[in-house]
Amino acid sequence: MLKECCKEQLAYKQHALKALGDALSALDIDRFDQVYSIVEDTLAKGNGTEESDDERSSETNSQRQQILTQLTETAYETLGKAWPSNHLTQVHYREKVLDQCVSCLNNSTRPVQVAIVAALRCYVERLTLLDGSTMLEEGDREVLDRILKKVYQALEFSLGILKHARLRKEALNVLYLLGKKLKDLNCTAELCNLSVTFGPSLEECSKDNTPEIKSRVIDIKNLLKA
């Protein structure tokens, strides 16, 4: 399946990446080295650095752009689904992956932005620094502070897109998950910082008429005040 993801035909590669992400997530297998390499290459080509003669002649620019957007969306979804529980792999990639996602968020299309934030949800969910299995050393806390700062940056941007309910909903899901993990670990200072940072965003989101958004805002507020 990894070989299929390296094929040049864009639509084929998209389907292969999706299948790979689903399989790795379901089986909890760590193949992140290979997946990250494939996704890096895919995103580089998606930025227009390479284009085959066949693709130029067989697709209009708009069709190609649509396929590239879908491929980029799938690439980020796969990155999230493939994020492993293996601590050593996470140590190697945890800041690199986060930088990749956050740096591309602002200038991406809305569907890709949703995929990036969904990938961040998988990232936070499996992050070993937040799973409570080991005591955090001083160096770990410094890494966690950097990670939280980057995640907050992504969430603040996403929650600020007032007319995109799906993106805000994904961001609120990440925020709730992150708050719950910090609370379970008794990270009082970090939880207080989260509350202060996102208080204004939560108030703004509470005005949204989308039921899922209103419900999640209530969940987060209850979590933070409990």
**Cα distance, first to last residue?**
46 Å
Largest sheet: none
Number of helices: 10
Cα gyration radius (Å): 18 Å
Which geometry do the CA atoms define?
Answer: globular
Secondary-structure element pattern, one letter each: HHHHHHHHHH
Second rung of CATH, namely the architecture? Alpha Horseshoe
Can you walk me through this structure?
The protein has 10 helices and no strands. The protein has 226 residues and is mostly helical. It has a single domain (1-38, 64-130, 137-225), classed as Leucine-rich Repeat Variant.
Briefly characterize the structure:
This protein is an all-alpha fold and 226 residues long. It is 76% helix and 0% strand.
Topology:
Blueprint: H1 10-27, H2 32-46, H3 53-58, H4 61-82, H5 87-105, H6 110-126, H7 138-159, H8 165-184, H9 188-205, H10 211-225
Helix pairs in contact: 1-4, 2-4, 4-6, 5-6, 5-7, 6-8, 7-8, 7-9, 8-9, 8-10, 9-10
Which labels suit this protein?
10 helices, 76% helix, repeat, ARM-like, molecular adaptor activity
